[in-house]
Design a protein that fits this description.
heterodimer; A: 617 residues; alpha/beta; Monooxygenase; two-stranded parallel sheet; 21 helices; 23 strands; 16% strand; disordered N terminus; B: 202 residues; alpha+beta; five-stranded mixed beta sheet; two-stranded antiparallel sheet; 5 helices; 7 strands; 23% helix; 15% strand; nucleus (chain A); auxin signaling pathway (chain A); ubl conjugation pathway (chain A); F-box domain-containing protein (chain A); F-box-like_dom_sf (chain A)
Chain lengths: 617, 202
């Protein structure tokens, strides 16, 4: 399941490079002091520092956390060099923060790369589709620099079929490809990867847009026994060659994770499950019979198939579920730690018998079709719940709203270990949010989306300030916060005052004045990702954050009260910041205000692949 | 006939509906409008409150201080709000539309003169008229008699009628089944003289 990265440390490789280049200290590396009086050639013992470097190399191999590595690289040049030699995993949180060449020059022995492109608001059509985040320059650079690359993890990047072909050709030991929220490629690209990457263990396509090139990519996997461990393609929205898939599963004894797309019927699912009872993660596909199954025909024993999967801990899919089949999963409920029903339009009654058995459940994604009653059932059983996401079946502002503060309150009372919540609703009260802040003090991620804009507490009519205030006050580990509903500057003053650990903040249709943004920029030292839309914050507020922007990964502000003059000022004051302004041509009512501002620190300066709609100041 | 589509306006007061006395849903027992059918036409107040879209039209009330200038009668959608990934929206929307298109349920209300309760049936369930009529007979415990194009329903004091898209009351069976399915908005099993009047006026 895709999830925004919540674990980025305050300093990533960019800051390190930056501060490194500004340091002038040198370590004494073996100096060839020519002050030797005699010119008799002596045996040159290895310079003490060279020994040190060798030792260091052996020691630093054990450092895996990139935060630690960044710190180590700052000690001195020697350590910087050795750290660069021994780093095998490269994490780049913003693909425009540095160039491929810079990355490959510094780190020469990389085996695994994580690369993130567009900001999250791109998911909601707020960015022009040609904005950028192209994988192409990266794959070309890595093809030359890292021939032994094994893993690639991309998020919100534009990847083409050619990129995938180059990848498949260039990395003979390639093992793991994970594409999250990516686009630009199709089944032809997948065919390349399937056929050329002989060591492939993981092919995970998560919430990506994959075009249907009518290529039978499943058949492109080699016919011999495979070391495939994970195959996730539930987002690939085209029919697949099922027989080929069945054969693939049969010859992949190490397969543990399999997530099917909705072209797979429940009958076909059964066939696969019978071949792969060792699965730990299963995405069920459509979970409905195929069209051409005659009524009354003997249906396979789904319950037994599930019962045979004794290692199953994660269940998802149910893309077009016929709820009558849901009871088939009873045998695995007691072992499940993760259940994703967020594409299943089921009622509380249909959920109850399932959830009643899910005592070990830690992660649950559902649709609000289960209503508050369904959430009460969850709260009654799932005492180990860490993460809950409740998605709306009808994502618009004035729909019925089957879940409310009642559900939230119930969850807060029943699931005390909750760490992460995403909750879409139509109405909410401060009382319920406050209750959650007290009952679930371990919250790390709190994202509440009251879908009606500017909607107050529906019982008291008050703004939602107090609720969110309580969250930042009581949840001492909170790193990610998304606010909604009617909010005044007061809410932001709470965030500034108490949200000392907040790293990601998402704001929409909130606040009264510049003070709101000001509170946050001055009060939250750990803030790294700030995304704001449709809020009345202007240039003065923007300028109040000058001291902090180099510490952030990015700032996004759209439909606020920024002028290009204000943005210019920022660009002038902070030369290492790339300030992009996107003005929708269509929207002339904007007048003097900037439509969209996206700014981020970078070692490279303005990029050269920006489309016309983007102006870089 | 124009009328305000304000969720709480008392259209129910003028609706042709019978309900059990004492229930909160229908506090007033309605009297039958006495306008008789002239051939297949019947003038009744236009009632659309049961259409699925009604609940979305309260949007004007809640969208006060909005940034967008126009609020068309349908929901004024703001780009990218609520923040659901298009991928997810499309999946669920596709299902909703498929469900509607595939017609998982053409539900119509059925009332019978003299019966205290309204019933609701799914026309999709029935293949043709005989099936539908049989179901109605079972439901309301009556016999419908023999249908003939010329004489309507003979041998019974009941006649099944339906209101079509134009608001006209027609005899069930007059049009081909498919046409009926697409145009039927509600059913009413008429009794007595009205039934006879309708049957004769082909």
């Amino acid at each position: 399941m895709s999830e925004d990265d919540d674990r980025s440390p305050p300093s990533d490789s960019v800051t390190t490079t930056d501060s490194c280049f500004s340091k002038t200290q040198t370590c004494t590396s073996g100096s060839t002091s020519g002050s030797g009086p005699s010119s008799v050639p002596e045996f040159q013992a290895p310079y003490p520092d060279q020994v040190l470097e060798n030792v260091l190399e052996n020691v630093l191999c054990f450092l895996t956390s990139r935060r630690d590595r960044n710190a180590a690289s700052l000690v001195c040049r020697s350590w910087y060099r050795v750290e660069a030699l021994t780093r095998s995993e490269l994490f780049i949180g913003n693909c425009y923060a540095l160039s491929p060449r810079r990355a490959t020059s510094r780190f020469t022995r990389i085996r695994s790369v994580t690369l993130k492109g567009k900001p999250r608001f791109a998911d909601f059509n707020l960015m022009p589709p040609t904005w950028g985040a192209y994988f192409a320059p990266w794959v070309s650079a890595m093809a030359k620099a890292y021939p032994w690359l094994e893993k690639l993890h991309l998020k919100r990047m534009t990847v083409t079929d050619d990129d995938l072909a180059l990848l498949a050709e260039s990395f003979s030991g390639f093992k793991e490809l994970v594409l999250v929220c990516c686009d630009g490629f199709g089944t032809s690209g997948l065919a390349y990867v399937a056929s050329k990457c002989r060591q492939l263990r993981v092919l995970d396509l998560i919430e990506s847009e994959v075009s249907d090139d009518e290529v039978d990519w499943i058949s492109c996997f080699p016919e011999s026994e495979m070391c495939l461990e994970s195959l996730i393609f539930d987002c690939v929205d085209c029919p697949i060659n099922f027989d080929a898939l069945e054969r693939l599963v049969a010859r992949s004894p190490s397969l543990r994770k399999l997530r099917l797309n909705r072209s797979v019927s429940i009958g076909q699912l059964h066939r696969l499950m019978v071949r792969a009872p060792q699965l730990t993660h299963l995405g069920t596909g459509s979970f409905r019979p195929s069209e051409d199954v005659a009524h009354g025909e003997q249906e396979p024993d789904y319950v037994s198939a599930f019962a045979a999967c004794e290692s199953l801990v994660c269940l998802s899919g149910f893309r077009e579920i016929v709820p009558d089949y849901l009871p088939a999963i009873y045998p695995v409920c007691a072992n499940l730690t993760s259940l994703n029903l967020s594409y299943a339009n089921i009622t509380a009654e249909q959920l109850r018998p399932i959830i009643r058995n899910c005592h070990k459940l830690q992660i649950l994604w559902v649709l609000d079709s289960i209503c508050d009653e369904g959430l009460q059932a969850v709260a009654a059983t799932c005492k180990e719940l860490h993460e809950l996401r409740v998605f709306p079946i009808d994502a618009c502002e004035d729909s019925e709203g089957p879940v409310s503060e009642v559900g939230l309150q119930a969850i807060s009372e029943g699931c005390r270990k909750l760490q992460s919540i995403l909750y879409f609703c139509q109405r909410m009260t401060n009382a319920a949010v406050i209750a959650m802040s007290k009952n679930c003090p371990d919250l790390v991620v709190f994202r509440l989306c009251i879908m009606g804009r500017h909607r107050p507490d529906h019982v008291t009519g008050e703004p939602m300030d107090e609720g969110f205030g309580a969250i930042v006050m009581n949840c001492k580990n909170l790193t990610r916060l998304a606010v909604s509903g009617l909010l005044t500057d007061r809410a932001f003053s709470y965030i500034g005052r108490y949200g000392k650990t907040v790293r990601t903040l998402s704001v929409a249709f909130a606040g009264d004045s510049d003070m709101g943004l000001n509170y946050v920029l001055e009060g939250c030292p750990r803030l790294q990702k700030l995304e704001i839309r449709d809020s009345p914050f202007g240039d003065a507020a923007l300028l109040s954050g000058l001291h902090h922007y180099y510490n952030m990964r990015f700032l996004w502000m759209s439909s606020c009260k920024l002028t290009s003059g204000g943005c210019q000022q920022i660009a002038r004051a902070l030369p290492r910041l790339v300030v992009e302004v996107i003005n929708d041509e269509a929207d002339e009512d904007m007048g003097n205000f900037v439509d969209k501002l996206y700014m981020y620190r970078s070692l490279e300066g303005p990029r050269d692949d920006a489309p016309k709609v983007v102006s870089i100041l | 006939m124009a009328f305000q589509r304000d969720g709480d306006l008392n259209l129910e007061a003028t609706e042709l509906r019978l309900g059990p006395p004492g229930t909160t849903e229908e506090p007033e027992k309605q009297t039958h409008p006495t306008t008789t059918a002239k051939c297949n036409k019947r003038s009744l107040p236009d009632m659309n409150e049961e259409s699925a879209g009604s609940r979305t039209n309260n949007s004007n009330v809640s969208n006060e201080k909005k940034h967008d200038r126009t609020s068309p009668p349908t929901k004024a959608q703001v780009v990218g709000w609520p923040p659901i990934r298009s991928y997810r929206k499309n999946c669920l929307q596709a299902k909703k539309m498929e469900a509607e298109a595939a017609g998982s349920g053409i539900y119509v209300k059925v009332s019978m003169d003299g019966a205290p309760y309204l019933r609701k049936i799914d026309l999709k369930v029935y293949k043709d008229y005989p099936e539908l009529l049989k179901a109605l007979e079972d439901m309301f415990k009556f016999k419908v008699g023999e249908y003939s194009e010329r004489e309507g329903y003979n041998g019974s004091e009941f006649a099944p009628t339906y209101e079509d898209k134009d608001g006209d009351w027609m005899l069930v069976g007059d049009v081909p089944w498919d046409m009926f399915m697409n145009s039927c908005k509600r059913l009413r099993i008429m009794k007595g003289s009205e039934a006879r009047g309708l049957s004769c006026a082909v």
